[in-house]
Amino acid sequence: MSRREQKCFNCDSGVARAAPVEAERERRVTETIDRRGLLIGLGGLAAAATACNSSAQPPARKLGYAIVGLGYYATRVIIPQFANCRHSRLAALVSGDPDKARRYAAEYGVPERSLYDYRSFDRIGDDPDVDIVYVVLPNSMHAEYTIRAARAGKHVLCEKPMAVSVAECEAMIAACRAAGRTLMIGYRSHFEPHNLHAMKLAREGAIGRRRYVHAEHGFVAGDPGQWRLKKALAGGGSLMDMGIYSVQAARYLTGEEPVAVTARASTDRSDPRFAEVEDLIAWTLDFPSGAISHGMSSYSSNHNRVRIAGDRGRIDMEPATPYAGHSLRLVRDGGEQRLAPPPGPAVNQFVGQLDHMSESAASGGAPIVAGEEGLQDMRIIEAIYRSAAEGRTVRI
Amino acid sequence: MSRREQKCFNCDSGVARAAPVEAERERRVTETIDRRGLLIGLGGLAAAATACNSSAQPPARKLGYAIVGLGYYATRVIIPQFANCRHSRLAALVSGDPDKARRYAAEYGVPERSLYDYRSFDRIGDDPDVDIVYVVLPNSMHAEYTIRAARAGKHVLCEKPMAVSVAECEAMIAACRAAGRTLMIGYRSHFEPHNLHAMKLAREGAIGRRRYVHAEHGFVAGDPGQWRLKKALAGGGSLMDMGIYSVQAARYLTGEEPVAVTARASTDRSDPRFAEVEDLIAWTLDFPSGAISHGMSSYSSNHNRVRIAGDRGRIDMEPATPYAGHSLRLVRDGGEQRLAPPPGPAVNQFVGQLDHMSESAASGGAPIVAGEEGLQDMRIIEAIYRSAAEGRTVRI
């Protein structure tokens, strides 16, 4: 199974049941397209239905997560989703702020004995309730806590960006491998039906030969004191936090790895928000097929869109990678069609991600967004920074 | 008047009447925005209403055009528009195909004596019916026929791209200057209300500080035998024909001139359409303010969109530069609004362009898209080609 093929991550009994699930998804996709009568020649989608290659077995019990770092994303986006998980439950909280930890513990029913701080963190190895450590800390702390968790014998789900350097990513992969533990990166778009459907359409020829990807991600950064704007904590600016979605989209929609990058950054250093990290950064990726991608990210304007153009049509997503409310359009044969892909087996991308991690950890199977996926993005990100700094094309 | 400010090109009696026309346009824009209640702080638009700086007087009579080259654009797009012009009329046809010339002459009431071919073209100097020569030939012939027309004592409207090299553009400007004749380039977007309104909004601060422009133009080229795909006739591929709209948009929306360009081309030379010219080409423009533009053009996929993002909002146009059916959206303050700019004084962009040329020729005033505008685009286009060929950033 290539890294670009989707493993059926929520099948109940392996390949035997997964294939019909996948076929049913294909059938619904094809019908969606046929109903509108705008598109022809996509019958191959149904015929191309792929069997689920996963050997993952559903865990016999829900696996316990320790959430490390109690910021907005952890407490308001991720933690509430455990209620919707089939294979995952909240087991422990790790925070440097005991009051905050106790408050969320009370809200989500985590016992006092399962609260850790950053000094006591390594004792998590003795906690049988915790199977998986989910690192939701500022970027510069990802490597340390991933490695400490692996050494404590826990599997690790680590937020994107995986770390702040290629060297850190490699150390994280090595630590998890040495400990025999699963490492996955929090690339939620790989569990989101619109993005999955776009990957599938692109891969299966719905837009012909893939030629050009354009991807924009950004938001207007507010408080200059936030960790995202501190180089020591974030490792970089908009590229680390948002541009990584643009890089990801170019890779998962072309199905290729870039061989060169040429970048430009533009930052007003007199703006107190941008004293340490870049604001606007824009780059070009060259792919072996001849496909080209323009990507950008910004901390001073709002962006969330992705387009891939092929020689038979194009796919537009805007917004492409929100928490909810995705839009997917297929433009072909003179017609434009808004597609509503069938929902995945998980209720949303966050649940899909958590449960896929649990299944991977339980079965020992490689997750679809393993550490190597994060490492590859970090190679590209480092090349983008180098290109922008040196004013030249950088080979990857 | 800077090159980026719009001259009121259809005012009836100069500044005295033009100012109220402009003020009325401003009022309607402001009301359009206020009605939706989404936008605030744009009151300055009305206060900023600019007086018409044109000293052009409407011609006492309709000026006569000779159309040189009877391809699709000339015969199906331009010629029918003379019926809607106030200051312009069709006076002569120039073609290498006498049957075709006679057919269109009959259709549009052009007398036999006003039909020319490429050998008899220079006799047009003796034709008092012809004031303006409109060059709608393949790109490589623009320079020759512009220069011959100027030497014959005629004003010239020349289609974009102005020519196929900077040297040719300079020679065309020099020839028209030496002959004391007006030279204008067929940049129809400068006479199109949505594009004019986008320029105005961007210029007047509606999206704050301008940071990023993305512009895509392309279509799927068919017949490999068409002149657009022959290097000797077209001078280049998708960049010459379509990418020039992306370059233009970056310039007229930022209101700046780029200082450097970095480009990549990607062409399948085994495709018979692309044996001589480029298919996909993508570039980055650096502007002095720090604004960055990504532009692209293609002959293997359909594209027509432009976005400019500022630190207070963005403007989206898709399609941005069609013959008709433009769309303009302003995204700000959490709201998105489709804007319907008030129509210009001309019924459409083609009529606006023809009549502005007539007014400029009659008055001796500089047209808003004079030869220097085409020359500047050609400097950028040459830099894009050089950058793509040499794999390095090229200063402009």
TrEMBL record, chains A, B:
Domain GFO/IDH/MocA-like oxidoreductase positions: 197-315
Domain Gfo/Idh/MocA-like oxidoreductase N-terminal as annotated: residue spans: 64-187
Keywords from the named record: Oxidoreductase
Gene3D superfamilies: Dihydrodipicolinate Reductase, domain 2 (3.30.360.10), NAD(P)-binding Rossmann-like Domain (3.40.50.720)
GO molecular function: nucleotide binding; oxidoreductase activity
Domain of life: Bacteria
PANTHER family: BCDNA.GH03377
Name of the molecule in the record: Gfo/Idh/MocA family oxidoreductase
Organism: Sphingomonas parva
